[in-house]
Amino acid sequence: MNKKFLKLELDFDFILLSITSQLRDYRLCHYINKALDFNFEKVDDHEITFVGQSPKFYSKYLYYIEEVTPFYYLISNKGSDGYLIPELKGSDYFVIIKDFIDDEDLQYFIQTARNIPDIQAIVELDPTKLKSKENLIF
């Protein structure tokens, strides 16, 4: 009997930043909005559902300008029932930047965010190396 396997390839065409901060999500967005002249707005929570389990929800914010890309998402790592990325329990939030952003803009975002007093750390991560990377797809 021949076995057939289905290989699923996921597209991780985004930039992933990890933020460590004790701030509540809305306060963190407020400080980022002030520092970078952004306008993060609360959107529907990021929902993860696995077969046979109840859904898990993670707070999510979005900032974008209609005529200009990229899209910036701020997602909490701690949700209604556990962690979005369990192997990164030290990370409190993730920033996902979708669509084009050049290195200069990315470095400006990181440096400016590092200057916010209540952010302990902000680090760029490679999403393809994460064990729970499928939780970041939406």
From TrEMBL:
Domain of life: Bacteria
UniProt-listed InterPro entries: IPExxxVDY_fam
NCBIfam families: IPExxxVDY
Protein name: IPExxxVDY family protein
